[in-house]
């Protein structure tokens, strides 16, 4: 007796279809799984055996062999339980054969309950593209797949509810589904909460308009964290593709239950500086996405940047360039998207008060301590940060006279103008924002006037700029021009862009 059903395993955020073949033959009673299963899949033998018996079915007193193909793909996790049980019961004639091409995913408890598994959104999306007609999934995961896939979704809460039995659940059609957004589009915080700091707010608007990485530098209490945490309120809204990619990541990480069935707002991730390399980049067994992937499409905020281990910070260099993270294992490679906006904050020195004009707060750091502190940030990492923004301590008269501070609405007036201009250029989605312009699109959009070319050449020679910093300054100037509604980059736009590279100019206070 033989039966074949389909399940899948996850590699990164991609679902790979797996054929689950069950053969029941004469011989001494035995139950074995072949096809490169991990320990969790091998343990399915006992879960399936108990679930089948406790649901009133007969477990075959014969030799049962389960083959999972292709055999060269590592099978990980507990999501194969339901498919193995279904194949066993179909092969033994206790369940009717499945009609149509159907994928089956779910974990079984010992009493037959169908438990949720991570990554259902990826499973539903990829199964539809691979030609499957139906997905049998845990009822607790139904909210993840609704509204994204054209598959017929068959939720199960218990093995006894199998389609064709006495008490099945009704299948859910994708047409009847409605997406549930995670939270309101309205931002609960506003830049109007911050007194003064007009230049820093302007820099945040530039970052949001062109999706430029930013580093905020200033003494304690000047508003660096407030500037960063208000940035999501002025970012462009998600498009469908970005939302799908980010929601897939949260589904694979088993975090989607905290955010609804769709991420409608860009994520804001702020890990503590004690985070490990695996926590930042991803890893574990089986591998899970790290903070750089959970921030995909949104913001990764690193407060107190020099306090992070240098080994962790250096790992950011590759995802900042490639917009993805690849985790290699002996038998598989996992790739997670990681296109995020990096925003970091730091003090100018270990004590935090270098350059502060105060009679009571003066810097106590030695030259060696200062060099050691700033040496934690490598040149290649700083080179990948577009905007170096000074956030100075305000003087008493500046606080008193800070009437009508710039609000989200004020900044959005600039930002929306820039977004409309960038979309009108008709670049492909990967280069929609100025920070991602490449090749011909960069050359066409970022031509400089003669006087700006001369200033750039002088800065390149005197500041020792790299070619990466050279192009990033031009991209910032393009964003400023877009905010001003200018078709071309003017000298003033470029001069302002150059002011946001204080680390290149070594103008940090000492």
From TrEMBL:
Keyword Nucleus assigned: no
User: Would the keyword Protein biosynthesis turn up in this protein's UniProt record?
Assistant: no
- Its transmembrane ranges are none
Annotated keywords: ATP-binding, Hydrolase, Nucleotide-binding, Protease
- Which GO molecular function annotations are given, in alphabetical order? ATP binding; DNA binding; peptidase activity
One GO biological process term: proteolysis
Quote the InterPro entries the UniProt record gives.
AAA+_ATPase (IPR003593), CHLI-like (IPR045006), MCM_dom (IPR001208), Mg_chelat-rel (IPR004482), Mg_chelat-rel_C (IPR025158), Mg_chelatse_chII-like_cat_dom (IPR000523), P-loop_NTPase (IPR027417), Ribosomal_Su5_D2-typ_SF (IPR020568)
Span of domain AAA+ ATPase: 210-395
| Superkingdom classification of source | Bacteria
Q: Which family does it belong to?
A: Belongs to the Mg-chelatase subunits D/I family. ComM subfamily.
Q: What is this protein called?
A: ATP-dependent protease
Question: Which organism is the protein's source?
Answer: Xylanibacillus composti
User: What gene name does this entry carry?
Assistant: comM
